[in-house]
Amino acid sequence: MSEPTDVSAEMPEDAPGLVGFIKARQREAEDGRLVHEERWLKAYKNFRGIYDSSTQYTNTEKSKVFVKITKTKVLAAYGQIVDILFANKKFPLTVESTPIPEGIAEFAHLQTPLDQIAPADPYGFKGDGRELPPGSLEATGGNLDYLGGVAPKYEGAPLAEGKARVGEPQISPAQEAALRMEKVIHDQLTNTNAVTTLRNSIFESVLMGTGIVKGPFTHVKTVHKWENVEGEGKIYTPYAKDIPKIESVSCWDLYPDPVATNMEDCDFVIQRHKMNRAQLKNLMNMPMFNADAIKEVLTGGGNYVDKYFESIIRDDEYLSRSSYERYEVLEYWGTVDSSFMNEIGAETEGIDELDQVQVNVWVCGNQILRAVANPFTPHRIPFQVFPYEISPYQIWGIGVPENMEDAQMLMNGHVRMAIDNLTLAGNLIFDVDETSLVPGQNYDIFPGKIFRRQSGVTGTAVNGIKFPNTAGENIQMYDKARQLADEETGIPSIMHGQTGVSGTGRTAAGLSMLLGSAGLSIKTVIKNIDDHMIKPLGEAFFQWNMQFNEDNPDIVGDLEIKPRGVASVMQKEVRSQRLTALLQTVTNPMLAPFIKIPNLLKELAISQDIDPDSLVNDMNQAQIYSTMLQGVMQNVQGDQQQQSGSPQTPSPGGEQPTGMGTTAATTAGTQPTDLTGSGNGTIGTGGVPTAGESQFAGNAPQLEE
User: Fold this and answer.
1) What are the residues whose beta carbons fall under 8 Å from the beta carbon of 609, sequence distance 6 or more?
2) Is the residue at 595 inside a domain?
3) More confident residue, 335 or 169
4) FRET partner for 414 with CA separation of 20 to 30 A, picked from 30, 242, 315, 460?
5) C-alpha dist (Å) from residue 302 to 270, 371, 469, 568, 688
6) Is residue 142 part of a domain?
7) How far from 242 is each of 6, 192, 217, CA to CA, in Å?
8) Which domain holds residue 112?
9) Is there a domain that residue 515 lies in?
10) How many structural domains comprise the chain?
């Protein structure tokens, strides 16, 4: 396994030039992110049901109720996305060979006597088939380069490149390498619990508009193993294994290039870490970290300063953290001028003064904790930033709360008005003529209350006034705002359990149409996840295996990563029905040779949330089981013949003998007899059945005793 180039060797204690450069870029990215931070805070507060400081209240408003419809929509969208992507407990990613693979053959075949058939002319001639075909082991001197990474598997076999002829076994080296790579990636994702990590990132993409996944990076995993040792029994023999691992990164901690609109355009990305003393000390055990620089930082004490938004998102605005010692560590991925490499003592042979160098640098305070050349080949910044909804002019996406911000504000306003009105309408307001009452009386109202009146007409001194009830109009406006939220988010209320649906949703066809429209909105979101997270992440795992995985040499090949998220959007029931109908169609012997039956069976299994690898055999396994099944059927037929005493001999013409009043036995290629004459079969020609025979429907005659 290749190691990253260490550029921290002989590093001076203080490198203000490079440190200043990274901190300047961090401030640049922070300034460009301010407007987005305001959006994220509003989204978070609407999700939590917290009024923003900018909310305007009237002097007479008493209610501060917050209707958390935003939270309902966010959870509904998140649940649907996770259900679509991970319903069958398998990462939605496949690996296939490219249409025209390079460096590895699409097809190869095992040479048989068909390759060396003698010609009719006994003297023969050049090109008559006697010579070995191009690509055979003998003709190429044993060169199996066209098999790519699967060459060791077929070493010693008389293979030839190209499609097989009838009767010759055929293999697909490119597809074998693709299948092996797919299994390796899925195994790595499972071993590192990647699905849980991705769920965290997907939730933040729904909430804030942007999800972030970091990696993969090499992670040392302890594999637990026991071996039987003679005379000692089972001995625990664990060993370390390098595997790729990913992690979820919050958008609050990432500072990308502010002018970039996607990760491909990013010149740099900075991740801000908040570490305690133990976490910072653990960096000493990581490769390429400068232990002396870390000790210097620890000696100086904590330097972490909270951002203005941190206390809000942590709900600890009034918590004093003077006693908490934390350190701010900046992790820089991107380009730097070659001049900085000279400053930190790195090797610069072959690097021009104007060159840009891809590096990974860790900074804390004024100390460089780690500085290495980008270890990945080809160079890449190991972050996948994916939007819920694409904003075409910025890297940050748009989430569900931002889309329904106005609708949430309207719902809150009209509910507050309704509650305040009900407070007034539910109580009497009293009109008191103090000149008519004896002075000095208490005006509190309670049953049996007596007011002493000194003048005026009876019933005019104290009057109860009923306040008009306008809550109904406010609730109507609330419902309109809720419908507006449905349209703005593309998530109808029926999807998250809303009852009392009216209009189009009252009929089965209308409800299906609503759910179908919602599926189209989610399909767009899943497509964004496919393009900006699943595919780049799959390619990153592919490149990691090509560069670092030395345990699986047969995964090398010209391969292509294909995300499968969008393929899962179609309602599973509909998709399953269509695949089943297609499977029935291809039972036609004329059509079957043109259909890839194993692929069809895999898609059918996926549509029913079944792992296809545990259910569908490959071509080799299918041939083995087919042979076994034929043997079982032959044994069953032999047992049946032995039980009958002799084999069944068909009568001339292929017809079985029939008795009077019985149906004729159905043979291959004939239609069954229909005694009623009402079906599609033929009318039987036998005699009328008598009592005691089959098909007799009358009353049996009574015999005299």
Assistant:
1) 87, 88, 572
2) yes
3) 335
4) 315
5) 20, 22, 60, 48, 106
6) yes
7) 20, 11, 10
8) 107-124+138-171
9) no
10) 2
